[in-house]
């Protein structure tokens, strides 16, 4: 994020971040650069780009001018120095872990996770040799005790999906940094409009842009944001960042790129090899959503609190989880981290248990039954029989 960008408020960055009028056509809207590749000026220009001696466009699997605007905008909204857009939020998580860890390494994760993240961490990545230990996010001693010499990061969500537990980001950042580890925070359920985890010590922030950033249920995408604050060299835990990379001309990411080491390694190594790139048209659609993010999150939060209060007093409802309720055990943390609104998600249980929940779902008329969050339309789902049936 540039010094000039730092002076703008969130609402301005949501509209202008990362973009000025197109210098060639003078288009004020962000153009869709629907291309696979880019013409080089000459042989030396091409060689310099491939050797990372200068930055520029090579191939849309690695970078694209439309996607670059999205990356700069989300980085600015989260308060980071750079970002990497991916084909989905799941791809953002996978790329982040694979950039940090290899077979034999270890990640400590809080237990309250989106179902797709849980499956990735519990089943898929362990097949590649990356081990995970799951600890309650409020068990600080448990988190400390789970760290080993092979640990590469602590991972958490700002608002657990769907438990809606509020994590004390500052506490987890303290534990991570005491052990020379980065803190990774998935900010999908809150979005940068409600909280910017980097301001509380997070080093890497992830968003499934599919959700609130996009905001309209039309586009799949993810974004990784690098705070630029973690010292990968001084940590002593990241030899792959400091040693020459034989797959990229022997480059040392820390020596060549300093505090951009993580995000550039994720791009030129991770994105190159996984191919999990976001299309230019998807980037364009997500930019449209980002422009109204602050307005939508304000209204989402107002509506969710109204619904939560209604449900809390309904005779057929056994319990309600919403951190904006004064009765929530997370309310004080919610006021600290989400002072302008506690988000769009409300979870509740109906008297009668599992079957009663299914009956409610089958009786809903207006809300859409589907597996998503962050849409402009109100959505409903029964996690116990779908996303979290595992």
Topology:
Elements: H1 3-6, H2 10-16, H3 43-50, H4 65-78, E1 82-86, H5 89-100, E2 106-110, H6 115-127, E3 131-135, H7 140-146, E4 151-157, H8 169-178, E5 183-186, E6 204-208, E7 222-226, H9 232-235, H10 239-242, H11 253-257, H12 261-274, H13 280-290, H14 293-312, E8 317-321, H15 331-337, E9 347-350, H16 353-363, E10 368-369, E11 379-380
Parallel strand pairs: 2-3, 2-4, 4-5, 5-6, 10-11
Antiparallel strand pairs: 1-7, 6-7, 8-9
Helix pairs in contact: 2-4, 4-13, 5-12
Structural features, described:
The longest helix has 20 residues, at 293-312. The protein is an alpha/beta fold. The chain has helices spanning 3-6, 10-16, 43-50, 65-78, 89-100, 115-127, 140-146, 169-178, 232-235, 239-242, 253-257, 261-274, 280-290, 293-312, 331-337, 353-363; strands spanning 82-86, 106-110, 131-135, 151-157, 183-186, 204-208, 222-226, 317-321, 347-350, 368-369, 379-380. It contains 16 helices and eleven strands. It folds into two domains: 3-289, Aspartate Aminotransferase, domain 2; 293-385, Aspartate Aminotransferase, domain 1, CATH 3.90.1150.10. The model has no long low-confidence stretch (mean pLDDT 96). The strands form three sheets. The chain has a seven-stranded mixed sheet, with helices on both faces. A two-stranded antiparallel ribbon has the order 8-9. It has a two-stranded parallel sheet with strand order 10-11.
The helix/strand series, from N terminus to C terminus, equals HHHHEHEHEHEHEEEHHHHHHEHEHEE
The figure for the number of domains is 2
What summary fits the major beta sheet? 7 strands, mixed
Q: Which CATH first-tier class of the largest domain would you pick?
A: Alpha Beta
The helix-and-strand class reads alpha/beta
Corresponding CATH architecture of the largest domain? 3-Layer(aba) Sandwich
CATH names the topology of the largest domain as Aspartate Aminotransferase, domain 2
Name given to the CATH homologous superfamily of the largest domain: Type I PLP-dependent aspartate aminotransferase-like (Major domain)
Largest beta sheet: what is the strand line-up?
A: 1-7-6-5-4-2-3
Tally of DSSP β-strands = 11
CA-based gyration radius: 21 Å
* Form type: globular
**Uncertain regions: pLDDT < 50 for 5+ in a row?**
none
- Could you tell me the mean pLDDT? 96
Total helices: the number is: 16
Binned strand content: 5-15%
N-C termini distance: 40 Å
């Amino acid at each position: 994020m540039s010094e000039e960008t730092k002076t703008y408020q969130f609402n301005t960055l949501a509209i202008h971040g990362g973009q000025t009028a197109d210098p060639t056509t003078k288009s004020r809207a962000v153009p869709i650069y629907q291309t696979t590749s880019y013409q080089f000026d000459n042989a030396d220009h091409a060689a310099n780009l491939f050797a990372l001696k200068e930055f520029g466009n090579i191939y849309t699997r690695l970078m694209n001018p439309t996607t670059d605007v999205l990356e700069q905008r989300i980085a600015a909204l989260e308060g980071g120095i750079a970002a990497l857009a991916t084909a989905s939020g799941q791809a953002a998580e996978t790329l982040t872990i694979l950039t940090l860890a290899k077979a034999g390494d270890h990640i400590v994760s809080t237990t309250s996770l989106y179902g797709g993240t849980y499956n990735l961490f519990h089943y898929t990545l362990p097949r590649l040799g990356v081990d995970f230990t799951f600890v309650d996010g409020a068990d600080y001693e448990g988190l400390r005790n789970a760290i080993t010499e092979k640990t590469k990061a602590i991972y958490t969500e700002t608002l657990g999906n769907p438990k809606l537990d509020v994590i004390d980001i500052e506490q987890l950042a303290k534990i991570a940094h005491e052990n020379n580890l980065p803190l990774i925070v998935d900010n999908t359920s809150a979005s940068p409009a409600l909280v910017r985890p980097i301001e509380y010590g997070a080093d890497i922030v992830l968003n499934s842009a599919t959700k609130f950033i996009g905001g309209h249920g039309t586009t799949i995408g993810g974004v990784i944001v690098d705070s630029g604050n973690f010292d990968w060299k001084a940590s002593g835990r990241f030899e792959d960042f400091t040693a020459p990379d034989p797959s990229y001309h022997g480059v040392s990411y820390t020596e060549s790129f300093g505090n951009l080491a993580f995000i550039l390694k994720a791009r030129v190594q991770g994105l190159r090899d996984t191919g999990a790139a976001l299309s230019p048209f998807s980037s364009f659609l997500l930019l449209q959503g980002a422009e109204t993010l602050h307005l939508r999150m304000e209204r989402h939060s107002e509506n969710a609190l109204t619904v939560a209060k209604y449900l809390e007093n309904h005779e057929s409802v056994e319990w309600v989880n919403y951190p904006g309720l004064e009765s929530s055990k997370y309310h004080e943390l919610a006021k600290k981290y989400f002072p302008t609104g506690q988000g769009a998600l409300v979870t509740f249980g109906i008297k009668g248990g599992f079957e009663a929940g299914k009956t409610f779902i089958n009786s809903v008329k207006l809300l859409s039954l589907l597996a998503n969050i962050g849409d402009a339309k109100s959505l409903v789902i029964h996690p116990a029989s779908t996303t979290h049936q595992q």
